[in-house]
Write a structure and sequence with these properties.
The structure is a single chain. By secondary structure, the chain is mostly helical. It has a single domain (5-149), classed as Winged helix-like DNA-binding domain superfamily/Winged helix DNA-binding domain (Arc Repressor Mutant, subunit A, Orthogonal Bundle), CATH 1.10.10.10. Helices cover 51% and strands 5% of the residues. The protein contains 7 helices and 2 strands; from the N terminus they run H-H-H-E-E-H-H-H-H. Strands 1-2 form a two-stranded antiparallel sheet. The longest helix has 18 residues, at 107-124. It is globular and about 65 Å long. The two termini are 16 Å apart. InterPro entries: TR_Rrf2-type_CS (IPR030489), Tscrpt_reg_Rrf2 (IPR000944), WH-like_DNA-bd_sf (IPR036388), WH_DNA-bd_sf (IPR036390).
């Protein structure tokens, strides 16, 4: 799995909104400055998040962006899907749409298992978990493994 700059920026922007609280609106400029995201790029991402139903926007002097629903109900996977599409794909194709033959036949269940693991973590961790630095124990356990931090 590769996390694109677009997905990374989308998650970071959503985290800024989560940290601001449900009633606060943040301007795109403030989010961009806080996270070091190019403003024009962020505007497009925020538009996608709005169209995806994750944020709402308000125009005017007191306008800005805020989460459309509580941070506890928005998974990191939700943000990535809106920003980039499917969490796991092979050559741009979702694993269930693939077929292999011969010695490569068992690749399909391997790709499906990889997708299931990615979904499990990114689908269960919410913006609230990350914004409050209270990651689930399972995630912390995986991250504490020294092998997780190395590139073989």
């Amino acid at each position: 799995m590769r996390i694109s700059a677009r997905a990374d920026y989308a998650v970071r922007a959503a985290l800024e909104l989560a940290a601001a609280g449900s009633e606060a609106s943040l301007k795109a400029e403030a989010i961009a400055a806080a996270q070091g995201i190019p403003h024009k790029f962020l505007e497009g991402i925020l538009g996608d998040l709005r169209r995806g139903g994750l944020v709402v926007s308000q125009r005017g002097g007191n306008g800005g962006y805020r989460l459309a629903r509580p941070a506890e109900s928005i998974a990191i996977a939700d943000v990535i899907r809106v920003a980039d599409g499917p969490l796991v794909s092979v050559r741009g194709v979702r694993p269930p749409e693939l077929s292999y033959s011969g010695p490569a036949e068992s690749l399909l269940p391997l790709w499906i298992a990889a997708r299931a693991n990615v979904r499990k973590i990114l689908g269960e961790v919410t913006l609230a978990h990350v914004a409050t630095a209270k990651l689930p124990d399972e995630v912390l356990s995986l991250a504490e493994d020294p092998e997780a931090w190395t590139n073989p």
